[in-house]
Amino acid sequence: MSTLPPGPSGLPVAGSTLSFVRDPFSTYERWAEEYGDIVATNIAGRTFVMVAHPEHIERILVTDQQHYGKGSFQRDQLGDIVGDGLLLSEGEFWHEQRNRLQPEFFREQLTQYATMMVDETRARADNWTSGETITLNSELQHLTLAIMARTLFGFDIEDAEGQFANTARTISERFNLSHVSTYLAAWIPTPRNRRYRRAMNNLDTVIYDVIEARRAQDDSPNDLLATLIAAVDDPETDLTDETLRDEIATVILGGHDTAALAMTYTLTALARHPDAEAEVRAELDEVLGDDDPTVTDLPALPRLDAAVKEAMRLHPPAYTLFRESNRPMKIGEYDVPEGATLTIPQWVVHHDSRWFESPWEYQPDRWTDEFEASLPEYAYFPFCGGKRHCIGMRYGLMETKLVVATLLQRFRFDFQLPELSFAAALTLQPAEPVSVRVTTV
């Protein structure tokens, strides 16, 4: 006899859709508190199973990964944006693309990127005046776009930066889980969907313009874009410009926003915890002095590392991930039907008191070697895990640390909001602009 996981029955037909739309974060927390680590419910007509225990998560992402694909839920939501890019592609095609692109994120390449990251950060900070109030999350989104454009695609985004940032923001907002329209087909002409369609057209125009401009160059840099174009132009492959477009969209939309959020949440957390901030600043002074940070400095900055780790635990930019079972499966003592959508929320696991004492408090000092060794493998997974872990994990962590270090060398950040609140879009977005006053140090 099949034993389904426990969970809320919700309303007839709608199931738990309305409570999830109203507040997905509280809903996740309530499910975990009331029903445990494995919870089944109905959302928008789909069987959803929340899995929130490290042991089960490891089975899904590693041990039994072949039985859990990306699935129709993610394809319905994201297929328009990233097509067959790395995020959604599967099987042999995914393996080939992953192997093709992975070298661009090896240590040798990252070392070359580091100087560009610091240069772009200093250029952005040059626009700030001591005593002024800035919208930190917006500034950092512009910065990470500029860094990504220069390091991975070899072009200066300055002229199109504002348009590109607005386009990316509009696309992300289309997937705010707290809006009913998110669960409607993209072709339905709601105001949000119309804005989304315009943004998608803008995205495609920018990407194809970048491809055309690169092909017209006589001497182009050896970067991610060059690797992609060479693969498409190779007669031995079946890749097309549409493949190229999908991978560029995946990297841009998947990379710049999560990094900007990690930076935002690290800087605001430090601003609200003066003791932790003082420790990081003292470490930067001791190791760097007045020098710019380099990639070789990062191992000597453990307090900076802990500050970033703790911010990504407390406010994980990727707050959940999804899989779909491609056959009936057993998770723990429960049966999961074929075609169920699994939601695996970092939001719940990262705030679980079984793994993290005082889980809702920012405590970077918790990140000792002994503590990390004691953690279950998937109690902390800000970059997903298994063979499909984020391809840009090293790039994103290095970028976040270099940017935070560079900015702290120049400014103090006075957080202007009483506290952060969040919106569940493609990533963990601030519900309102993050205003900070910057003061030179």
TrEMBL record:
<keyword id="KW-0479">Metal-binding</keyword>
<dbReference type="InterPro" id="IPR036396">
    <property type="entry name" value="Cyt_P450_sf"/>
</dbReference>
<dbReference type="Pfam" id="PF00067">
    <property type="entry name" value="p450"/>
</dbReference>
<keyword id="KW-0349">Heme</keyword>
<dbReference type="GO" id="GO:0005506">
    <property type="term" value="F:iron ion binding"/>
</dbReference>
<dbReference type="InterPro" id="IPR001128">
    <property type="entry name" value="Cyt_P450"/>
</dbReference>
<keyword id="KW-0408">Iron</keyword>
<keyword id="KW-0560">Oxidoreductase</keyword>
<dbReference type="GO" id="GO:0020037">
    <property type="term" value="F:heme binding"/>
</dbReference>
<dbReference type="InterPro" id="IPR050196">
    <property type="entry name" value="Cytochrome_P450_Monoox"/>
</dbReference>
<keyword id="KW-0503">Monooxygenase</keyword>
<dbReference type="GO" id="GO:0016705">
    <property type="term" value="F:oxidoreductase activity, acting on paired donors, with incorporation or reduction of molecular oxygen"/>
</dbReference>
<dbReference type="InterPro" id="IPR002401">
    <property type="entry name" value="Cyt_P450_E_grp-I"/>
</dbReference>
<dbReference type="GO" id="GO:0004497">
    <property type="term" value="F:monooxygenase activity"/>
</dbReference>
<protein>
    <submittedName>
        <fullName>Cytochrome P450</fullName>
    </submittedName>
</protein>
<comment type="similarity">
    <text>Belongs to the cytochrome P450 family.</text>
</comment>
